[in-house]
Amino acid sequence: MVNIRQSDIAKQLNISRVTVSKALRDHPDISRSMKKKIVETAAKMGYVPNLIARQLNSRRTFTIGIVVPDLENSFFSYIVDSMIDYATGHNYYVILTVSREKESIEKQNLENLIGMRVDGLLVCLSQETTDREVFTKVGKMNIPLVFFDRAFKNMKFSRVVFDDKPGAVNSLNQIILEGYTKIANFSGYLKTNIGKERLEGFIETLTKNKIPIRKEWIIEGGFELNDGYESFKKLISSGNLPEVVFTVNDRVALGAYKAAKESGLRIPEDIGIFGYGFNEITDFFDPQLTVINQDPRKMGVEACKLLINEIEKKIKSGRNKIFIEEEFLWRKSVRSKVKGK
Amino acid sequence: MVNIRQSDIAKQLNISRVTVSKALRDHPDISRSMKKKIVETAAKMGYVPNLIARQLNSRRTFTIGIVVPDLENSFFSYIVDSMIDYATGHNYYVILTVSREKESIEKQNLENLIGMRVDGLLVCLSQETTDREVFTKVGKMNIPLVFFDRAFKNMKFSRVVFDDKPGAVNSLNQIILEGYTKIANFSGYLKTNIGKERLEGFIETLTKNKIPIRKEWIIEGGFELNDGYESFKKLISSGNLPEVVFTVNDRVALGAYKAAKESGLRIPEDIGIFGYGFNEITDFFDPQLTVINQDPRKMGVEACKLLINEIEKKIKSGRNKIFIEEEFLWRKSVRSKVKGK
DNA sequence: ATGAAAGCGCTAACAC
DNA sequence: GTGTTAGCGCTTTCAT
């Protein structure tokens, strides 16, 4: 037979299906000997419990839905990997969906996931999302949801995000301590939160250190390799090079590396480059990239842990907020004059 | 109310639940006006169909289970991304699990997934898997399964794999055409299929070209960055450098880059490096890595397409075999003397 | 210690 | 066109 049910086992043993059900779940009602017999024949018959049926009447699926903008971005794949790790360790499945940074796909994904009656949701918003309708629905259905990395503010959901400003401030202070004052900023798109907030910390810190802000060194662009490349080219053609470039993410930094090398500029001797990124990617840079480390695994684990705690009501659902700290990691792409690092 | 059911809508409208069910699925039985009324009140009440219930009685979940060794490896994250893309486009969900290269976790994942009654499975075996028991079970339950990248042979399942030998042969022939004869091989572990098969093509091609095989240039190691690094160090300390190094994957290549640069060897002027990899990672190498391109997206899409075709019985299940072709991509890490590439 | 009855939310088959 | 009946596979009372 292909699909054995509890009733098949019951028939085989001439007992009731309830007895089988209880025995298989090690219910105290059933005698040791009976249990043994049932478990054995179940194994012999190749019984596999039907979790769908169980889910239906327990109204619990032990399933978490994830919506992520893009899995080709290693930052996200590390996050998802760590979420799956944590979820699996706590007996939850993960249904993974990708929004491709499209609001419409994201919405569709969310509706499917709530149709699947996931116990909770982990969501990183697409860059273009503005409509809150689906999320309101999720709220009404009392499905716990935790935003990670990119979140709506002023909604009743929890979120786990990086604390960008302190990271920028701290790293820039260290850079300035080294004696650098000529610092450019490749900011990404300033209409996005990430672009805006990261630039704010930059301006604030320079101002506090009485370093004048040069507009021509704040270059707005996208978030991809090519944007970093183009921005660096602009820098060069301006004829006015800074000592060090601060980049909004690793792809932009890589583009800057490319352009610098093409122009015969040595890193870090002729120009330093550092920016947001995470430890695991530094090795892909030559020389190793000095980064403000945004640890994706930490973020993934914290978000998933928070969600499961909310699902299991170990903590009140919604409006919890966790900041993941960023740490400045000196590698090789900025010369440390003072500390000889 | 939090969780609206069809019966709630029926009660509200003083009609039977079946009418509601039919109307919502646009069944021809129901009149236009009735449908409209039902759909509207459903929306107003915030009805979300319970897919679990639907799955239970249709015995179809529209869910695909994926088991992958590691999501931090970008090769796999690209594969998974493309699978999700394809699956979503064909109205399937994806439950994603990670085996961490552990046979025991892989087995657990598979048992959970078949308990969830996935419609099909996409599996890349862990490096240590030898036991076929779970797979036999999957076979008995008639659940379509497609292996990708790493597969059991001689089982009744389909598989999608790279055709390693022709890739190696073709690339090596091109390299040899360039006039190179002193070629080293960083082979990975030879007890694994991948290591073994990739080396075979190497030996075969050199032999055919009457190039003597030098044992000291075939260096067995692991598959990680550090293994490439150590292997290269060995090469150097042997005092006998080849002209070009052929690596078993991108991480090993990166390690080789590191060691080469540390030793003051320029790539490609002093030594060339090329190996298995994929297009998207070449940019992370400086100079860009010349690769035998194993396109993960192609593999992901083909595997997923095959699986869905088997699920939907558009094709006979099992024993289908698809080879993904590899393409040699000249980049910058091997100097082309002849073609000036 | 074992079992009968009822229900999770939905749908297919069959009346009316 | 609309509704009734029965059942997907399991579990939770509540009897016996």
Provide structural commentary.
2 copies of one chain form a homodimer. Chain A has about 350 residues and is of the alpha/beta class. The first copy, chain A, folds into 3 domains: about 5-50, lambda repressor-like DNA-binding domains (434 Repressor (Amino-terminal Domain), Orthogonal Bundle), CATH 1.10.260; about 60-160 and about 295-325, 3-Layer(aba) Sandwich (Rossmann fold); about 165-295, Rossmann fold, CATH 3.40.50. The first copy, chain A, has 12 helices and 12 strands. In chain A, the strands form 2 sheets. In chain A, strands 2-1-3-4-5-11 form a 6-stranded parallel sheet, sandwiched between helices. The first copy, chain A, has a 6-stranded mixed sheet with strand order 7-6-8-9-10-12, with helices on both faces. In chain A, α7 links the parallel β3 and β4. In chain A, α1 (about 5-15) crosses α3, α5 packs parallel to α12 and α10 (about 225-235) packs across α11 (about 250-260). The first copy, chain A, is elongated, with a radius of gyration of 26 Å. At the A-B interface, α4, α5, β2, α6 and α11 of A face α4, α5, β2, α6 and α11 of B. The structure holds a DNA duplex (16 and 16 nucleotides).
